[in-house]
Predict the 3D structure of the following.
Amino acid sequence: MTDIYLGADRATDAEAAAVDAALRSRGVDPVVRPETERLYTSGTARRRERRHFLLPALHALQNEAGWISPGGINYVAEVLDVPPAEAFGVATFYDLFRTEPPAHDGDTFHVCVDAACQIAGYDDLAASVRAAGGHVHLGPCLGQCERAPALFVQGAGGRPDHVPADDEPFELPQAGDESLRLLRRIGVADPESLESYLAHGGYRALRRAGEMGAEAVLEAVAASGLSGRGGAAFPTGVKWRAVAAETGRPKHVVANCDESEPGTFKDRIVMEQDPFAVIETMTIAGLATGAQNGWIYIRGEYPLATARLQGAIDAARAAGLLGKDAAGTGHDFDIAIWRGAGAYICGEETALFNSLEGFRGEPRNKPPFPTTHGLFGEPTAINNPETLLNVLDIILEGADAYRTRGTERSPGTKLLCLSGKVGRPGLYEVAFGTTLGDLLELAGGISGNGELQAVLMGGAAGSFVGPDSLGLPLTLEDTRAAGTTLGSGVVMAFDTSDDMTDVVVRIAEFFRNESCGQCVPCRVGAVRQHETLVQMQRRGSLSPARRALIDEMAEVMVDASICGLGHTAASAVRSALALGLIASAPSR
Amino acid sequence: MTDTTITETAVTLTIDGQPVEVAEGSTIHSACVEAGIETPTLCWAENLTPVNVCRVCVVELEGSRALVPSCSRQAEEGMVVQTGTPRVRHSRRMVLEFLGSGVDLSQADDLHHWMKAYGADPDRYGDEDHPVERVEEPVKVQDELYIRDYSKCVLCYKCVEACGDDAQHTFAIAVAGRGFDARISTEFDVTLPDSACVYCGNCVGVCPTGALQFKTEYDLREVGEWRPEDQTVTRTVCSYCGVGCNLDLHVQDERIVKVTSPSDHSVTSGHLCIKGRFGWQYVHGE
């Protein structure tokens, strides 16, 4: 029974049935069911016990009706005991949800307009979709930069979401390279077969971890020097140790699969091509930290990765590799998948928690940190798939052997997302310390007119470097010293024919659109920054006062924003100005 | 008689070079108050949970890369805090400037002093050919009790908190949309009478910018007759039920023009119900 006030609008039978089906399938999930029961009995007013079903319910409404209607919101509000104003506030937060009736009843064709697709001519793709009668929605990076321009088809009328490029056979540029570590099973093991994964060494690491025990796993991960591969490079061993030290409360392992940094597609390929490795390493993380609940939060634009991960979870569970006494380790662990709905900010870990819990994906102020106050306010180890994958070798060959690759301060290998004007765009794995120039050579050198103008490192939140940086060793320490970043592994090349002003203005627009709006420095600063650059573009010049203003705006965004989005929103813009890629460039 | 004294653990921190002792669990902001250091706030209020979104109260904390919001960050033993450094002043100025560049702050009286103090110049953005984006929305006048003018809204979340967990538990409004397009809204922007709103007016009570306003005040302002300098404030006790809420009656020209409650009042914490907040017409024999 609810004491929530609902307006007169009622859901259609089809909408109600879609929501019911979504809740039913979520509700019987081995992680979700006990967790929900626990939250229900321990719930607080803010949490509203079944609130974490909100996102799946909204997905169901959107997919059924092509929008989220007032009747649909009321239905969800009633069954989940969520105030309709809050459910509406959540629905309007995401790009994949619409709260106005669609002008068409077909699918929506999302075409990416971010840098890699910009220089690959997304407008031609959009035009051809429109010519075929498709409804185009221009939007941010879809995580397919190696096959730009990118397209994602959002289904309506109950039709599934679909990425046309997923129908093409997958090829790894470095296929057959003996030195591959993280990518060694890709193209070799069948991602849809547990038997194949086992035949290629799968689940040896989890069994080994079970023999070693949690403490020894924590020691090995710490000794390996592994750090987070999402951009912040936080030591994984420290994070896991902190979660392991928490006792008396339920704990969680979250795989941050919301990869949305423009130019980044590494985790998508890992999840699509090696899903069992993600599941196995999450289970190891659960064992090491003492967490029993695994959650995968994956961006909504990754239907193939979602399906493959779900298939892997189902197969692993059927084989006793998940669930009670997973793989005979004595540790209980299971995993549920939660789909995001189009919001860059939800890759920020605390925004991700809020989103999964059914709130707006607004970052939380830190401290407290996720290791003590994470998902549902409980201790949480959150890592992305690339970070997790490293744990296999750390367990199997030991920290010392792991450290033979890479450098002292950046041990191991790194996945790099090559896109833009390179001969063979795609996902590459190299040891830390490989130079930028060697990496670009490995990827077939500069394509287009062959003359390198700049490389975007680390994505929209990263920075540009010029052709004089080809000798830069790709390590955390060297990139930091050079004033740039590896970030999430983006290496996007531009040739001298690319209009960098267009690219930089679009990066500024990206932040303007993706700011969650919670804090003033970012909400307004990202808008004013974009406006100032548009003004520069129209005028063809930037006055000294405007140039100074960009720095002043950047300072407050870096100093006073709540989260990393605001902290990095001016990074690429400032580096482009410093390199003379924009503003001082001659008119073309 | 038994000794009922509870020993509070105190922490000592340094603010602007001066040692300050506060009870454990206190915020840096309350330590600043303790030390007599004035700190601008916008989204903070003593009767609401800190949401630390406006960032105008930021201070420099030794060892922290970014500035920290003083309103929510707890004071810790040995913290070294600076409130007047160029970085702090710059961020505060820019936050005020950003707000002023995007919304109408003409009735945000508390901010005017700070904008002057920090030299905020909201008009330096854009130019004649490139006007900046501002929040511009028609005033929502949907009943006789209060109006909503979101072109004055700074998104401090106070009204959402007062409507929700912090006071009324009605949840009629929430933040909808994202980024600069984020707005305080009912579901699908339905009118207040069609929403869960119970007209307690607690959102009006906490609004710092005049975005939410008594209809009486709005009407008087519209005809240029709103004169705070001519108003008296009389404290009384609400006559409707036995709870004993304190009311502050704001009176102009011998008519009640709005009703508030002191936020430090033990019964109300500043929050009222529809009767205490809006039910004064009988006083005037109407």
